[in-house]
Write a structure and sequence with these properties.
Chains A, B: GO terms for molecular function: DNA binding; DNA-binding transcription factor activity. Chains A, B: Keywords: Cytoplasm, DNA-binding, NAD, Repressor, Transcription, Transcription regulation. The structure is a homodimer. Chain A is α/β, with parallel strands linked by helices. The first copy, chain A, folds into two domains: about 70 residues, Arc Repressor Mutant, subunit A (Orthogonal Bundle); about 110 residues, NAD(P)-binding Rossmann-like Domain (Rossmann fold, 3-Layer(aba) Sandwich), CATH 3.40.50.720. The first copy, chain A, is built from eight helices and nine strands. In chain A, strands 5-6-4-3-7-8-9 form a seven-stranded mixed sheet. The radius of gyration of chain A is 20 Å and the shape is globular. The N and C termini of chain A lie far apart (about 45 Å). At the A-B interface, helix 1, helix 2, helix 5, strand 9 and helix 8 of A face helix 1, helix 2, helix 5, strand 9 and helix 8 of B.
Chain lengths: ~210, ~210
Amino acid sequence: MAMNKIPQATAKRLPLYYRFLNNLNHQGKKRVSSKELSEAVKVDSATIRRDFSYFGALGKKGYGYNVEYLLGFFRKTLDQDELTDVALIGVGNLGTAFLHYNFLKNNNIQIKMAFDAAKEKVGTDIGGVPVYHIEDLEDKMTGIKVAILTIPASEADGITNRLVEQGITGILNFTPARITVPDHIRVHHIDLAVELQALVYFLKHYPLSKED
Amino acid sequence: MAMNKIPQATAKRLPLYYRFLNNLNHQGKKRVSSKELSEAVKVDSATIRRDFSYFGALGKKGYGYNVEYLLGFFRKTLDQDELTDVALIGVGNLGTAFLHYNFLKNNNIQIKMAFDAAKEKVGTDIGGVPVYHIEDLEDKMTGIKVAILTIPASEADGITNRLVEQGITGILNFTPARITVPDHIRVHHIDLAVELQALVYFLKHYPLSKED
């Protein structure tokens, strides 16, 4: 592939930049300094400049960045004009939080359908998203290539195998299980306990001081 | 500080290593190869070796790693024997998911109390954690230094200021808001929309192929 690969950490910040620039644009702001950008998204200026450098130089010294240009650029980069359909597997507390999250507001992503095994949830509509029975996954999920897993860890392997059979290409895995998939399927794993533990680890070992 | 600083990405993997080793130990396994470790935690061997190198060489060629030694080492490193109390602010769907997550099972972290503004939640007990009224935050939260924010973005700034006054040192921020805190307070930010958007971005721009 001819495209420059950008680090995953950079890719994760792109939506943050995009969201902030979108807000600025709505407020009618025409330009933004790298300092303002840095304070708003809580990313240091050096990192922002390095991130932007992966896409070519976009700012001018003493002027900062042109909001509209930058926005157009990010919109294209993030394919904001192209909608991706996503399926949510598991309508527990975390799954329900996802369904109430209004992704479309700033994003190019739509949770199109959800699946659960609980009879009282099947047939309902949560946050505008229909909930189907997990047994109907193969029938309903045609054409959807991305799934969010918010099921119990014990269910993760079985459901993952069914998603793989179904032709999924990406899984956002919120279960504590480390799932096994063929090489051509991308899995991002987020574990709430690990995130919390990492914060506590950093607090204990690298306390920030008021004098720093 | 004399300790070597380890990268944040490495710190995030430590709890994964710890959890897997703990399982192995329960199964009575005495040693583990770097390949097995790699397959189980879904981290490539080179990364595992580099991560471990920050703590000194721990493995032996052709033998692998001694599970018990490694476990003792990680337990000490992650302070598994020392309990950290955490407060959860916001008992919506995401907050409730946290309360039902049994952190103590493999961790050194305990959600000690939760806060919400909804009358029907105050005074209840979710997953063994008492829910107090958000107005009682200053009275109840004495001695707790870590908070998880699962409140609406519009509430984030006001609550953050109260937590700062209260002497908090770390915040795990799940709101889409980028909160502002003094330099001595550590904030880790996790945005569900950003995580999903990053996955979709990678799928579009860096598809993995079956031939890779």
